[in-house]
Amino acid sequence: MKRAYRKLSLKYHPDKQTEDTREAMKEEFVKITNAYRVLSDPERREKYDVYGIADEQGFANFDEATRFAEDGVEDSVLNWLGLVAVLAVGVIPIVIMQRNRTKPLKKRREALRSLAKNRLTKAGDKSFSKTFTKTRKQYVDDPTRAHLD
Fold first, then answer.
1. Which first-to-last residue range defines the signal peptide (predicted)?
2. I want to staple 26 with a disulfide (CB 3.0 to 4.6 A). Which of 14, 71, 102, 147 is the partner?
């Protein structure tokens, strides 16, 4: 590998080229040099195998970061488990609080219903029962009166 690199670097070195071909050969020389650096260093080679880049700077620009993100890394199992954990921590307490909030409301409704039934049956007025139940339902379900509970 070292011998092939030296042979190619001498062939494409910008100082060995004419003025006309210097820029094109300079790009080829840079590619050859970068390839040799990656292949000769085990740490860089591992980075290149995993991420597709082996630069010490990380992502030099936004395009490289986008390409890295599109390589399927976001579909890993750990990322999905992390998302589920975050949602569980954020959503489950809200659901529990909502359920706990409705329990006292249901108890109050039942107490009001039984109280109204007892008073109405003692009074003996059955027609008033329907009107009272309808009015009570409107009162309890009215969101503007929720602060009065």
1. none
2. 14
